[in-house]
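Q: Structure tokens for this one, please.
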Amino acid sequence: MDKELLLFPLFSGICCTLVMASFLVPAFMSEQFRGMLENGEAAENPLVWALTFLFYFLNYFVIVFFNSALVACAIIRFRGGDPTVADGFRAAGKRLPVIFGWALASATVGLILKMIESRNEKIGAIVSMVLGAGWTIATYFVVPVLVVENVGPVDAVKRSWSVIKKTWGESIGANFGVGFMVFIGSVLCLIPLLGGGWLIAQGTVSLGIAAVILGVVGLMLVSLISSALNTIIIAALYLYASDQETSQHFDERLLRGAFASR
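A: Here is the predicted structure, written as tokens:
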């Protein structure tokens, strides 16, 4: 994997953090907002829901924009090219209208699920979880669809669902494989993290802090790699499902195994 591709999930994470801070800092500095939280009135305030929708929209826009840039670079690489970060940004920039539309649709769905959850703490949470899981599955291939086919939100979901039906087994396997690697990497990174905490408690502060920093950096790196790998695998499966197109970086037999005869 090209190391520069890790910049896209890194930029995405930084921008999402900035978006979150731009909402949370003013909110918790507001006495009115803190009062609504304490009195349980936040869920009944239309302004709170409007700001929640805006927060969802901005986050989805950031995530989809940088994922689109990563998918574009992955596709260029699959087809024998040598993509740069600028290539990814240019490709995502050309898809701004459809990215905007998809972020709007995703924010709407997210807000509806949140409202369902807020209506009843137990039943609402279960219904929201089930509907959210279905939405996540149906929209699994939306980003490569947006990048390659340049369609609106409704067509993107339809197209994504048609691809997921073809690649159901391999998509689950890919997620499991990436998830397993993330688990192993995270466990390895927890060793210096926990060891550093123990060293600090024993009075070896300098060495302990160094170990904690090493563990934190390792966890961040694992997160970046897993995010990039997942997006790249989705792009590869989408290309194969759409055009029977494979890359030298993937075993065609494994991709072909994703498609059961219907």
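A few notes: The radius of gyration is 21 Å. Residues 65 and 93 are 8 Å apart (CA to CA).
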